[in-house]
Amino acid sequence: MTRVTAVPARSVDDKPVHSCLYPAFRARDRRITTIEGLSPAEGPLHPMQEQFLAAQGFQCGFCTAGTIMTAAAKCCAMGAPMERVLKGNLCRCTGYRAIRDAIEGHRHVQEDLPGASVGRSLGSPLGPALVTGQARFTADEPPIPDLLHLKVVRSPHAHARVVAIRKEAALQVAGVHSIFTWEDVPLHRPFTSATHDDYHVDPDDTLMLDRVVRFVGQRVVLVAADSEQAAVLACDKIEVDYEILPAVFDPEEAMRPMLRSCTKAKTPPHASPTRSAMCCGRSTARMAAWPPGSRKRTSPWRTPMPRTGSPT
Ligand code: FES
After folding, report:
1. I need a labelling partner for 74 at 20 to 30 A (CA). Which of 90, 129, 173, 176 fits?
2. Separation of alpha carbons 238 and 234, rounded Å
3. 3-state secondary structure of 205
4. Kind and range of the H or E element at 51?
C-alpha cells in the first residue's frame, strides 16, 4: 500500500509529486515510483535510503517516504539550498537537522557488534522498515466496519470558561450516537500530552474535555455518529456560551510565571499553597515537593517507553 502523505511520496517520471494532490489520470502511461519501489525487493537499498539509515534521518518516520523520494530525485541538483530541495516536505518531529545530515551523507550510527553494543550509537530497529515504506501507520489500516465517526467542536477563544452547552438539537440529528462535554469527564483523571523518555517529568495537566479552554482550538464537545456527515451536522447545531478570560499573546509575557486555573484536585500535603496554584499540575519545583517514591504514575494511559537507541 502506498502511504498518502502531505509531502511528495512518489515520483512520476522521476519528478517528485504530492501523492495526495496528484490526479490519477495525469499518471496514465507514465513511470510511477513509490518508496516501496525505490530499491529492488531483495536487492541493495537506494543510496539515499542508506544515507537516511546512516544518519538516522527520521524519528517517527511518517515523513520519511516523501523526504527520501524528494531527495533521491533532487539530490543530484546539488548546490541547491536544502530548504529549496525539500520545499513542501514537512517533518513534525525530527527537526530537519538529522534529515539534512542524511542528505549530505553524514554517518551517526555505529556498527552493531555482538556483545559490544552498550554505549554505542545504534540505529533504530525500525529504521529499515521506515526507509523502505514497510512500516505501517494508522492511516495505512483500513477502517473497521461499523466504526463510529468522531468530530470535535473546538474553542474559538484563547482563554475562556464554558458557561453552557446546548446540545439538544444536535442529539436529534439522525445517526448521532453520543455527545460528550466536560461534564462527562472525571476531574481526577488528567493525562499529559507530552511524551518524554522519562515520563515522570511530564505533568498530568490535561483533561479530555475541560470546563476552561486555554487555547484556540481546544476540544470542547465530542460528537460520535454513524457517518462523518452526521457528526459534522451535529457539531454545527451545538451552541456554546463562553465567559471570556484574560489571555496572554506575547511570548515574553508568557515566559513569566503566572497563575492559571487548575483542574487537578490532588495536591501533595506539604506543597506550598503558592506552588500548588502556580502553573498547571506539577511544575518542576512542585515535583520536587513530592516525597521520594511517590512519583510513580498510575495513569492507565501512560506506560514507560523503552529506549530505542535512536540518536534523534
Ligand atoms: Fe516524524 Fe518526520 S514527521 S520523522
Report:
1. 129
2. 7
3. coil
4. helix 47-55
Is the CB of 94 inside a 6 Å radius of any atom of ligand 1? yes
CB of residue 11 inside a 6 A radius of ligand 1: no
Phi-psi region of 167 (alpha: psi -120 to 50; beta: other; left: phi over 0): alpha
State whether the beta carbon of 92 lies less than 6 angstroms from ligand 1: yes
Mutational pocket test of ligand 1: of 59, 68, 310, the residue with most ligand atoms within 8 Å of the beta carbon: 59
Is the CB of residue 67 below 6 angstroms from any atom belonging to ligand 1? Answer: no
Taking only the tens place, the pLDDT of each residue in 99-135 is 999 999 999 999 988 888 889 999 999 999 999 999 9
Distance of alpha carbon 166 from the chain centroid: 31
Distance from residue 55's CA to the centre of ligand 1 (Å): 14
Q: pLDDT tens, 32-90? A: 999 999 998 888 999 999 999 999 999 999 999 999 999 988 655 556 777 887 888 88
Quote the DSSP letter at residue 9.
E
For the chain, the residue count is: 312
Q: Are strands 32-34 and 212-213 parallel, antiparallel or unpaired?
A: unpaired
Q: How many CB atoms lie within 10 A of CB 102?
A: 28
The pLDDT of residue 17? 85
Pocket test for ligand 1, best of 3, 53, 60, 308 (most atoms within 8 A of CB): 60
Instruction: Decide: 51 in ligand 1 pocket, CB within 6 A.
Output: no
Query: Is ligand 1 within 6 A of the CB of residue 135?
Result: no
Of 9-13, 32-36, 179-183, 189-193, where does mean pLDDT reach its minimum?
9-13
